[in-house]
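DM from R.C. (forwarded with permission)

"hey, sorry to bug you on a friday — could you get me a structure for this? deadline for the figure draft is monday and I only need the backbone to look sensible"
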Amino acid sequence: MDFATTVKMGLKAILSNKLRSALTILGVTIGVAAVIGVVAVAQGSQRQVTSQIESLGTYLLTVSIRGRGADRVLTYDEVMELTAGIDGIAGVSPVVTGSATAKYGTHKYDCSLLGVNEQYAIVRDMKPERGRFFTQVDISTRQKVALLGQNVVTELFGLSDPLGKEIKLNGQTFVVIGVLAARGGGLAGSEDDQVLIPVTSAERLMGRRGVSTFYIKGQDKESVGQISAAVSNRLYRRFRDEEAYRIFDQTQMLQTVTNISQTLTLMLASIAFISLVVGGIGIMNIMLVSVVERTKEIGLRKAIGATRRDIMRQFLFESTMLSGIGGVVGIITGTILARGIASAIKVPAIFPWAGAGIALGLALAVGIGFGIYPARRAANLQPIEALRTE
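My reply, with the result:
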């Protein structure tokens, strides 16, 4: 019996019991949809978390000074001397953080205030959309200049151009020299709510002495570890206490987040795969029922020349067709499900092309695996005994 005849007879058998076939397909559909939905949402969540971490800057080290006793900060010059001469550093920026009320005319806006230096643009990949960034002269001469985030510009100036205008920050006058490009929300809140001023001016404005946090950007991934070791060594010589400072390696955190996310995705997908196995058991059950119902047909076909291989191939085709249809419908259903869940929890859903291929392959494998026993049972029927069945 040729393949075309096998296909024709298999489709006829499936369509002759539409409701039963539909329920069997539903079991596989649920399994595949669960796998696709879980993987799509998990990958979307991973990308969202990763992008938030990367928004802090690429190849970034964050150094926090805890100090010892009253010695809990470093001066700006000490930070720059501490990092001088270390190979692989692309930029260093001390940071002084606080909050301020920005005012322009009758408008005011509560914002985050960051004191940084001219290298902060390199460290955080932050370039002004309009105007300019700070220069070394702005830092050394404590210039009262500021760069505004998009939300600050909108609240204070509306559609007007803020460049060259004077604003008040906690009562002190600063000249706007630039507008930062929109960056959206991050781990520490929206960066569009920030106002940047020179770190030396921020110390005076906020009444601070020295800095307790600074960022270091490496030139590449390989240099980050070397920089971290060198800075740690110099800080230990400065404080003689490993508890006096902490160095946070963003690259390691990204790798940790990725590993955890992949483990959770694999675990959830494995749980969802159980539904696929249950669907396969349903296929085996239906195929066994089909063998019993079609015993006389099998005997007749064998009597007129059908081989054991022909019978087995037909029943395997039917089980594989049921699982294949369930797999395709499951991919479509899983995609719709993933988008719905992602929209509800406000994360992107990333369609897992590789996962869809694996899920479809598993569905077909389930159809074949759970169809072998019924197919062999049908193929082993003796023609005379099958024809005697009523």
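R.C.: lifesaver. The chain has two domains: 3-52+255-388, 89-212.
me: no worries. The chain has a mean pLDDT of 83.
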